[in-house]
Design goal:
2 domains; Rossmann fold; alpha/beta; 268 residues; single chain; 9 helices
């Protein structure tokens, strides 16, 4: 694990920001207090930022529209998903390759944008993302392709995702099913893999030493930021409580109640 940089004491010391979306900016389709003021302050200062999410279902445009509905104006290019990180990774590994994808439009669009062809005919990769339209036929095809030698990739390891009605099975659950059926484990690209953080830094053209990762989970956001050499800020506006940090062998640079604290520090 990389050493944590010199701890920050104020948001004014940060040169770029990576922001988890759910639990940091929005929660259960509601704006987190201070999120709008924080983003306004970043825009006013010209401070670069990216909104990160392990959700691979939606495109950047879809997510920008969701945030706008919740009162946040975030340009499409300021959003980075595990689907985009996965497509970027595959492009560096095997440019213009082929894949069989289990996932929704966010994943398939990202793969197409890097020049990938989607096929069931001896693909280079089987790529699994979150989907609301999973079928037994898809699972069967994926199992057979993996057994025949296709490389197994998943956008993120999250076993469940949030909804207003309660948790939903997500990418990690589908990947576990395929692993059980094939005896093969996938390579997960999204958080907590620091690869996603590094891909976001490249997209932002930012340096780890002056960038902060803000998230509401110790086991994904904070550890990924730490391993990528970033400052880390745990917010308590999502799933974590203050005492939760004490149960992990690593600590964030800071713990704050919400991004409202950071907005106040930036003078907004």
């Amino acid at each position: 694990m990389s050493n944590d940089p010199t701890p920050i004491t104020s948001a004014t010391e940060v040169g770029a920001w990576l922001l988890d979306m759910d639990g940091v900016l929005v929660r259960e389709e509601h704006l987190v207090e201070g999120a709008d003021r924080f983003l306004d302050a970043l825009s006013r200062r010209g401070t670069p930022f990216l909104v990160l999410t392990n959700n691979s279902i939606y495109t950047r445009r879809d997510l920008a529209a969701r945030l706008r509905h919740n009162g946040l104006e975030v340009p499409e290019e300021r959003i980075w998903t595990s689907a985009l990180a996965t497509a970027s990774f595959l492009h560096t590994q095997r440019p213009h390759g082929t894949a069989f994808a289990i996932g929704d439009v966010g994943l398939t669009t990202a793969l197409h944008q890097v020049g990938y062809t989607l096929t069931e005919m001896s693909p280079d990769y089987v790529v699994v993302g979150e989907t609301r339209n999973l079928s037994f036929e898809q699972l069967t095809t994926a199992v057979r392709l993996i057994n025949r030698g296709a490389r197994f990739i998943a956008t993120n390891p999250d076993p469940t995702g949030p909804s207003l009605e309660g948790p939903l099975p997500a990418t990690g659950a589908v990947a576990a099913l395929l692993s059980k059926a094939t005896g093969r484990s996938p390579y997960f690209v999204g958080k907590p893999n620091p690869l996603m953080i590094r891909s976001a830094l490249r997209e932002l053209k930012a340096h780890s030493e002056t960038t902060a990762m803000v998230g509401d989970r110790m086991d994904t956001d904070v550890v990924a930021g730490l391993e990528a050499g970033l400052h880390t800020v745990l917010v308590l506006s999502g799933v974590s409580e203050a005492h939760a940090a004490e149960h992990f062998p690593y600590r964030p640079s800071r713990i704050v109640s919400s991004v409202a604290v950071l907005a106040d520090e930036l003078g907004n």
